[in-house]
Amino acid sequence: MASSRQQDQNMSTAAEILDPYDGPVASLGYSVRDYLLQQLPGISEQPDAPAGIIGYGYGTGYKDMICTIIPSKTGIKLGLAYGTTLPDPAGLLRGSGKVHKHIPLSSVADFDNEAVLQLLQQALKAWEQRKQLKR
């Protein structure tokens, strides 16, 4: 079994995932990251370099996941765990996944609005309900 020091050395960082992208995409990724850390107090950041994403949750498994940052050459996707179950009156959610949906972001203005905040709050509320069911 690996020591905790070895595990820390093997863990990815947000910078390792975002920095390889062009300046505007990396900058947007950091802005989304700051926004999530502000909106979701106590959230755990879980960078996954092999998958190229940064997960945010209140535990280590998908059931405890709230959202993800998914960088690409053209922008950032804000993934929402269990996004298919969330109300989306503004029609922001995209993706063909059976569980996970995302909001495509190409600028700060794309996520700095009430509709995105409401979806993020709904994702948090859905996690709280899942947590209640586990008890």
Measured by DSSP, the beta-strand proportion falls in 15-25%
**Shape field:** globular
Number of helices: 5
Second CATH tier, the architecture: Alpha-Beta Complex
Q: Kindly, what is the distance between the CA atoms of the first and last residues, rounded to a whole number of angstroms?
A: 30 Å
If strands are numbered along the chain, what order do they take across the biggest sheet?
Answer: 1-2-3-4-5
Which fold name is given in CATH as the topology?
Aspartate Aminotransferase, domain 1
| Range of helix content | 40-55%
| Secondary-structure-derived class | alpha+beta
Give the C-level CATH assignment: Alpha Beta
Radius of gyration, Cα only, in angstroms? 15 Å
What composes the largest sheet?
A: 5 strands, antiparallel
Please, what is the average pLDDT?
88
Q: Could you tell me the number of beta strands?
A: 5
Domain unit count? 1
- Low-pLDDT runs: 1-10
Could you state the order of secondary-structure elements as H and E?
HHHEEEEEHH
